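Sequence only, no structure available. Ideas?
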Amino acid sequence: MPGPGPHMIYTLGSGLALLHATNGRFGPHHCVVYTINTFFGPDIGSFAEWLTSTLGSGRALGSSVEPWIHDPLYYVLILGVPLTLLYSWASRILLHKGLLDSVSGIPLTKRQCFLLISAGSLSHFFLDHLFEENGHSTMYTWILSTGWWKSRAPINPDAVFVIAILCTVLICGFIYINSRLKPLESLRKRTGRSSRLILIVAIGYCLWCVIQVYLVRPPRPAVGEEADLGVLVFLGIYFFLPYWLCILSMNPKEFQDSTEQLPL
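Reply:
I predicted one. Tokens follow.
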């Protein structure tokens, strides 16, 4: 599975992009907490297992801890609250001592820390599920199982029709929402409507795939040989959701110090 380098470079690079795109509302403190929890967070369990096996004592305890901590949900449920308190305290200390700058001039709140811990946990498994166990992880195997590998996948006319409708609605709906015919609508309102459009189309797409793969007997290829159901579910949970949590953790605009804003 990926080591510390890929995990931390992936999330710190993503955090830096958010820092620039949000003009500092997602600041250096956000980046550090997000990055630390992407690698060392869920891997605390693996580290505990390695440490106890190396020291030769407490091996049973280390082995029992690892599967509970190295999990995208249990990590947050078990360590989310204590780590939230730790990171919010550390953010105040780093800011007060001048060791880490904050564009907004305020430390991270407990809510922000908890959101970043959750985002980091999910981003950790974004890489782990793709690149561990020689490509035979449970998640990756399930993703591929939603495709059609038995034989050459037939292209069913109803599948072409449904997918064409969904994709047309997605593109045309986005163009309509962001058209020049609605100049009075704010960018935030357009973004919200566009997000809802994407979510509705994604749900419809997944529903079609579920019906074809799991409900129709015998099963039929949902979209040719493509494993679209698994890919969409995986991206929704481990790619889009972490970034949404990061966006929710951003500092409000009113706390942003205009004298220290980063250039766009």
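Residues 148-226 form one domain.
Hope that gets you unstuck.
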